[in-house]
Design goal:
elongated, 7 helices, Urease, subunit C, domain 1, four-stranded antiparallel β-sheet, 2 domains
Length: about 200
């Protein structure tokens, strides 16, 4: 089934997807006319190819993302350092559950690819199952590990035939995205599937 994604502030960069692949990229009117039967998903903000987060090991293996049911004892903020490692040592099964929650947080920040050498099969499997692409870690990292690194690392432009991976951010321009960060993400699509939606 064809799906046409368009964002309010970037109608010239609409994306028509067919299954897990990009069928076409271009102005919304042209794509809508070429595929009149496509389901249309309209979003606020701008549609971009999504982000690469270079901190996969730090965020998925060295950070514990608490389960909401643990908020009374652990809080809701990610835990790092010795506290996180003590939790993993005390119950190794926590690594997989934490990595899954970490990936969900990445998806909620427009991440469609990760980089960094994952040392555990558990975290690598979580990344693979989520459909995240694995890219090359830049030689110079953009700062401390974060779900919204500064500067943000944008993926290459979408093209027909490429995997349908992209994100939509509720901002008016790319400059606004840089200022406000990746927490403005309203939708993330991976392999044609809507894997995050905030509204």
């Amino acid at each position: 089934m064809l799906t046409l994604h368009v964002a309010e502030h970037s109608p010239e960069a609409a994306v028509l997807i067919d299954g897990a692949s990009v069928a076409a990229v271009g102005p919304y009117e042209r794509l809508a006319a070429a595929a009149p039967g496509a389901r249309v998903r309209s979003w606020p903000g701008i549609l971009l190819p999504g982000l690469l987060n270079p901190y996969a090991p730090e965020l998925l293996e060295a950070t514990y993302h608490p389960d909401p049911r643990e908020s009374d004892t652990l809080g809701s903020a990610p835990l790092t350092g010795e506290r996180a490692q003590a939790l993993f040592r005390g119950d190794p099964s926590r690594l997989g559950a934490s990595a899954r929650r970490g990936v969900q947080r990445m998806l909620a920040h427009g991440t469609v690819a990760v980089a960094g050498d994952l040392r555990t099969r558990t975290a690598a499997d979580v990344v693979r199952r989520a459909g995240l692409a694995v890219g090359r870690r830049p030689p110079r990292l953009p700062g401390p590990p974060s779900l919204s690194p500064t500067p943000l690392i944008l993926m290459p432009p979408l093209a027909p035939g490429s995997p349908a991976r992209f994100a939509v951010f509720d901002v008016a321009t790319r400059e606004d995205l840089v200022k406000r960060g990746a927490s403005t993400c309203v939708a993330t699509v991976i392999e044609g599937r809507l894997v995050h939606r905030s509204r």
